[in-house]
Automatic annotation (TrEMBL):
<protein>
    <submittedName>
        <fullName>DDB1- and CUL4-associated factor 13</fullName>
    </submittedName>
</protein>
């Protein structure tokens, strides 16, 4: 708690002797320069031009793989160490400081599908491949050349598609035909989650909440799990498939999903009914995504042969990286010092990029650092001005990306124009536009449905979950609920259906009996039962012309049914 106290120096207002003159308080301020805004604007314009002039993000290309680089993994305890796995079955360990491969191993007889480093010790890592095996390898700081034989291996009856270690733990999670939670060096999973027939595409563990992890499936769904629970905690189904996800290291409840619809979606784990933010800009399916250590930015790689850097709260990207030789970007990675980006692509290379394209690497003298800080402040202050903003936002991209981007913009404008025309020519009806945060979500639930085994047990016991908590059977529970509903209706004097009409029960019944003889008409706590006047006459069956209500699953349809004849 801070307390501000009035503090004065007596030398500023008291005389030393009575012969001294009285001190007159003065406020000395430099005169404002009338040309300061113009000078700062010119400096901001020059700073923006220099920023784009020195923007050279590409640093190095690492060669050694004989096929496409599928996965990248960072070392949780070493800044200069990264691992890559390719379709040639090799796993290579890269020294980013020396920009060379420090060690390698032929890990699998097929493509490497997942690599993850043990975050508790950092001296070993695990891999999964198309040969249906999980293998564990030693990773010493001084290892050089071939890593040799694995420490331990587990043969599986299905192909695991991904693996990820939990934060500061030797436990890990694998995805494939279902999702499995493993203890260290065990030959069988500690727990397996049944999520249906779909294959788990990728799985990622939360870096803060050590028991939470998420997986995306080929049936377009995203599941959130807790290692302490036996069933998924939450689920959301998208319109198209999600290829990968990444957790925010600073906000443990936030994650971003890379989707096949060219967009990325930022979700809040606490509510999956809608996305928090939609990030658009790619012109191809987004294959991988990774958050920066600060949690303020993330990087994505796409099938459109580009890498984009996004601010976590911005809908569009702040930077795009492309190279003429670079093909599909299959994996991306942010280093732990927030300065570099790694990308693995389809032409066998791992590339090293700067996170800030115009940043000067190496040590800076104080004057140079102060000048760069001043230039950054000027660019941020005048970025909204047309000339400065145009220079800062301009990016030279390949013709294919530019043409597709223009085409997508035309499609979006066409959809907006169509919606405006429909709304303008619809009589006495206001149509609300569904935002993209909700439009691309098909299904979402916070609590999992009941397992078939649990429901069978409840049927055998003859008690429901609510009844068990009350300590009474189903029949008694339903009777008690019916008595409470009837008492509430008697107090209010109105039923649910009558309230919508604005009339009481007695008036409504009189009105119904005046038209026709109603044989069955009852009010329920959830919905109004269907009432019909069925008559059989000379082998014929028809319904009277009356208002009826049909309900199933909470939905109802009310309308006048015309006379209809049916013959046996």
């Amino acid at each position: 708690m801070k307390v501000k106290v009035i503090s004065r120096n007596p030398d500023h207002y008291q005389r030393e002797t009575k012969l001294d003159l009285f001190k007159v308080p003065q406020f000395i301020r430099d005169k404002e320069d009338p040309l300061q805004p113009a000078v700062e604007y010119t400096r901001a314009l020059n700073a923006a031009k220099l920023n784009r002039l020195f923007a050279k993000p590409f640093l190095a290309s690492f060669e050694g793989h004989n096929d496409a680089v599928n996965v990248l993994a960072k070392h949780p305890l070493r800044l200069n160490c990264a691992l890559s796995g390719g379709r040639d079955g090799q796993v290579r360990v890269w020294n980013l400081s020396l920009r060379k491969c420090s060690s390698y191993v032929q890990a699998h007889n097929g493509p490497v599908l997942g690599v993850s480093v043990n975050s508790s010790t950092g001296d070993n890592f695990a891999t999964v491949g198309m040969d249906s095996q999980i293998k564990f390898w030693r990773l010493s700081e001084f290892s050089d050349g071939d890593l040799g034989d694995p420490i331990h291996s587990v043969a599986m009856d299905y192909v695991p598609t991904s693996i990820n270690y939990m934060y500061e733990s030797s436990d890990f999670v694998t995805g494939g035909q279902g999702l499995s939670f493993w203890k260290a060096l065990c030959d069988s999973p500690f727990r397996t989650y049944n999520i249906g027939e779909s294959t788990v595409q990728a799985v990622k563990c939360n870096p803060v909440e050590t028991t939470v992890f998420a997986g995306c499936c080929e049936d377009r769904s995203i599941f959130i799990f807790d290692s302490r629970e036996k069933v998924p905690v939450q689920k959301v189904v998208m319109k198209l498939r999600t290829n990968n996800i990444s957790w925010n290291p600073r906000e443990p409840f936030t994650f971003v999903a890379a989707n096949d619809d060219y967009n990325l979606y930022t979700f809040d784990m606490r509510s999956l009914l809608s996305a928090r933010k939609v990030h658009y800009g790619h012109v191809g399916a987004v294959l991988d995504v990774d958050y920066s250590p600060t949690g303020r930015e993330f990087v994505s790689g796409s099938i459109d042969k580009s890498i984009r850097i996004w601010e976590s709260n911005a809908p569009t990207s702040r930077e795009i990286y492309t190279v003429q030789r670079m093909q599909y970007v299959l994996s991306v990675l942010y280093t732990l010092d927030n300065k570099y980006i790694l990308s693995g692509s389809n032409e066998f290379n791992v590339r090293l990029w700067k996170a800030n394209a115009s940043e000067k690497l190496g040590a800076l003298v104080p004057r140079e650092k102060a000048a760069m800080d001043y230039s950054n402040q000027l660019r941020n202050q005048y970025s909204a001005h047309p000339k400065v903003g145009a220079i800062l936002k301009r990016r030279k991209v390949p013709r294919q990306i530019k043409n597709l981007k223009d085409e997508h913009q035309i499609i979006r404008e066409k959809q907006d124009r169509k919606f405006a025309n429909i709304q303008a020519h619809t009589k006495h009806k206001i149509i609300e536009k569904i935002p993209n945060k909700v439009a691309n979500i098909i299904e979402s639930w916070d609590k999992p449905p009941l397992d078939p085994e649990d429901s069978k047990e409840e049927e055998k016991d003859g008690e429901s979950k609510d009844a068990k908590t009350k300590g009474i059977s189903d029949s008694k529970y339903l009777k008690k609920a019916a008595e409470i509903d009837s008492k509430e209706k008697e107090k209010n004097g109105e039923s649910k259906y009558a309230k919508t009409k604005g009339i009481s029960d007695s008036k409504y019944l009189k009105k119904a009996t005046e038209k026709q003889n109603v044989k069955k008409f009852s009010f329920d706590s959830e919905a109004v039962e269907t009432f019909t006047d069925r008559k059989e006459k000379n082998g014929k069956f028809w319904r009277g012309n009356k208002q009826a209500s049909f309900g199933s699953g909470g939905e109802s349809f009310k309308g006048k049914i015309k006379k209809e004849k049916r013959y046996n």
